[in-house]
Design goal:
single chain, 79 residues, mainly alpha, 4 helices, 82% helix
C-alpha cells in the first residue's frame, strides 16, 4: 500500500521516455497534416497521429481505449 501511495503522481521512466520521443513527433505530424498540400499525405500524417495517441493510451494502462483508437478511428481514416 505504501508503494502505491508513494508513486502517485510520478511517471515511470519507460512512459516518460516514450512520451518525450513520441510527443514532438506527433505534434510535428499534426502540424504537417495542416501544412501539406496533398490529401494523401495529410491522411497518412493523420493516421500517424491517431496511432501515436493509441500508444499513449496503452502506455497509460488503458489498452481497451488504445485498441479502440486503432481499430475505429485509424481504421476509419484509412478507409
Amino acid at each position: 500500500m505504501n508503494f502505491v501511495l508513494e508513486n502517485i503522481g510520478k511517471t515511470a521512466t519507460p512512459e516518460a521516455v516514450q512520451f518525450y520521443i513520441m510527443a514532438p513527433l506527433a505534434i510535428a505530424a499534426a502540424l504537417g497534416m495542416l501544412i501539406v498540400k496533398k490529401a494523401v499525405h495529410s491522411a497518412i500524417l493523420m493516421a500517424y497521429v491517431m496511432l501515436s495517441l493509441a500508444f499513449f493510451y496503452i502506455a497509460q494502462d488503458a489498452p481497451f481505449l488504445g485498441i479502440v483508437q486503432i481499430v475505429v478511428y485509424t481504421g476509419a481514416v484509412m478507409m
